Amino acid sequence: MSEPTNTGREATERAAANTGEQEREQSAKAAANVPADVAKQAHANGWSLHALEQNSWAHVQHSPLGSMWDLQGVPVLEVAKRTWTGIDEDNLFGRASQLAYSFFSAIFPALIAMSSLMGLIAQSSGKLYYELLGKIGQLIPPTAFALVTDTFQKTTSASTTGKVTFGLLFALFSASVGISAIQDTLNSVYNVKETRPFWKARLQAMGLTLMVAALVIVALLTLFTGDWAANHMEGLFRGAYVLAMVFRVCYWAIACLLMVLSFEVMYYFCPDVQNRKWRWFTPGGCVGLLGWVVGSIGLRIYLHYFNSYSVTYGSLGAVIILLLWFYLTGAMILLGGEVNSEIEHAVAEKKLLNGECPLPPASAVGRVDVNVARKAS
């Protein structure tokens, strides 16, 4: 009898030792991710840092901020430090490479879907469609843009308009791969488990693909019609260059606002966060769009003066450049989501420590993905 008893006691002791080791490891990880003053205040309030991380993320998911611009006393520098740390710990750039592959798989179905949507707007949409593609070409590197347009022409020339239109649903389903990848990555950024059924998440991704495509089309139409109107204004009113310049600034501003709105749509619908509040403009959306525009222009300038991809990769150079631009796009989308999540997390942490809000319900704490979450694992 003594041998089984000793064996059971040893197993219990090993389990207790493992539990204690896990708790120490969790506390060490949490301590490495919170400022010293926050850790001091947490200990003074009787909070373990691991519990503070879990409850603050749960509060973000249960009761998000009403305004992302109101930091409620949290220094901007602290948000920047959290974002910098989160970029590394969430493996943001690694996930951006995953998004680049997903975007590459979705680009041609997305173009077919956009072509079908343009066909619903105007039956003779071919010229208009390629005019809009030309606007996109102002951001995409020229080699990659030529690859996209050539492949699209070969794809659509083999099909009638009816076939392309009837294939809209299939194109949407294929193009939604990119949005599905964004859903997964933003769930990780917000440290939340995916609870939506596959069919529901995929239908939502298809709907988001339509919404984002529509916003992009409207933004491109704004640039196209605005440019035409500005040129017409200069011809109609000779010497009205200042007025035309003001008009150009206005329609570019409207197009940028529409693109920010497309970012906000993704940040609102993609993560599986409960009780979300719609926000028209957030710091993350503005940072993401600004980084995307500046990065795209910088990539074009770099490739113009230092393009060695064609020499190194030969005919695959255009594919590599397109993947590089998709990587930049994915990184900026995730960066904006990271900024928003860190703002919400920092404010929730401060409010919990100061006793300014009740503890989130156990159901919200249970949705925190402690196996993936960088600060609560």
TrEMBL record:
Keywords: Cell membrane, Membrane, Transmembrane, Transmembrane helix
Disordered: annotated span: 1-35
Membrane topology field: Multi-pass membrane protein
TM stretches of this protein: 99-122, 164-182, 203-225, 245-269, 281-303, 315-335
Highest taxon of source: Bacteria
Keyword Heme recorded: no
InterPro entries cross-referenced by the UniProt entry: Virul_fac_BrkB
Gene Ontology cellular component annotations, sorted alphabetically: plasma membrane
Entries under Pfam families matching the protein: Virul_fac_BrkB
Places the protein is found: Cell membrane
Protein's recorded name: Putative membrane protein
Species the sequence originates in: Terriglobus roseus (strain DSM 18391 / NRRL B-41598 / KBS 63)
